[in-house]
Amino acid sequence: MSTPHHPALATEMPRREFLRTSALAAATVLAAADSRAAEKKTAETKPAPKKKKELKVPEATTPFLTPSADFYNVERGNPLPYTLPIEKRREVGLERETWQLEIIADPDSNSKIERPKLKADGTALNFAALMKLAETKAVRFLKVITCNNLSDPLGMGLWEGVPLRDALWLAGPVENLRHVYYYGHHNEDPKQIFKCYLPMNRVFEEPPGYLPVILCYKLNGEWLTGERGGPVRMIVPEAYGFKSVKWLQRIVFTNNHQSDDTYANGNNDTNSWLKSFARFGRLPEQAKAGAPIPIYGHAQVGVSGVAKVQYWLRKEGEPLPKNDPYFATAPWRDAEISPLPDNWAGGLDTGALHPTQFDPATKRPREWPMRFTVCRWTATLRDVPAGKHELVCRTVDTAGYGQPLPRPFPKSGRNVLQKVSLDVRA
Predict the structure, then answer these.
(1) Degrees (nearest 5) of the Cα angle 101, 106, 112?
(2) What fold characterizes domain 36-266?
(3) Residue 385 phi/psi, 5° resolution?
(4) Average pLDDT, the chain
(5) What is the three-class DSSP state of 26?
């Protein structure tokens, strides 16, 4: 069913698509993993042939942190860089022992730095030098990865890296520095370059309550695989996934005033923050009238936070609220937001957790739900009569606004309301 006059409401998904997104929802929110998995890929291992990943509906033992191999992929590159033969990966710096990061001034602007880091003269930052910085600068934080144009998260992880600013200071920035832009390996094909910008103020200092942009080399305690963007990728905590460029190899200081990164070419908002939204997990195909019906799901916590998760049950065919395209007057009911599980880390090293997210003394979240992560929610439907029904869910942010708000620029991060069907039999 579609509701074109209600742009905030996602249409009901086909069963196969619903299972896929429900699996992805549950995979990012449930109980913690029992133990760390052994590293699946080493520098000497050639990746298996690329095949389409099939997501399975997880049970209640699914980890809070999405295993690296279970992230849903949004990828660019032909061929995908991590599928290159090991000899080629070593040659182009896609293995830890050969990775190098150049840091330069834009030759097309008047930016000045004192000590450019170049492969040509042996001054580029290599992995050993990055690990030297990590001895005193490494941080870890939780972040969900979401595509700007998809309605569900790709995965939830504990990311580790060195603040970008600590690497950039090594280049001796001087003047006329307005942005940095950066990109990764692109198969020596200029048409494949995927470039992103960040304002200089965001790189060198973050407002209170924000996390640093990092040069990331570990996910969930393991070295980044090529599939996840290793050896090193950018992670921008408050941004959608396109800002967290994979296979990072060059950073450029520029005085250009326009942040015309590659993603802008598709009419995307290149400065969009993560938005808040709620999603359902797996629901029963049929339920019994009068019997309690448990429902659950996850919520992505965007820049405006999440104060409530709410659901709305309506009988199929009932009139929708008039002149209320975002259903502000609908009879919403509050769900229960689950706390972060005590064993969320599943045995991972929780040292160096960033103090913005976790109290160093207690190692507990300073706030929950935590911005730029996910949380789980649950509820129980009671006394539902027989018939076909629709369920809708949403978040309410910390300012009291129901999400989604009207957004005249839709490619700024999808956070439409999700609608699913519920068949209740007598």
Answers:
(1) 95
(2) Sulfite Oxidase; Chain A, domain 2 (3.90.420)
(3) -75, 165
(4) 86
(5) helix
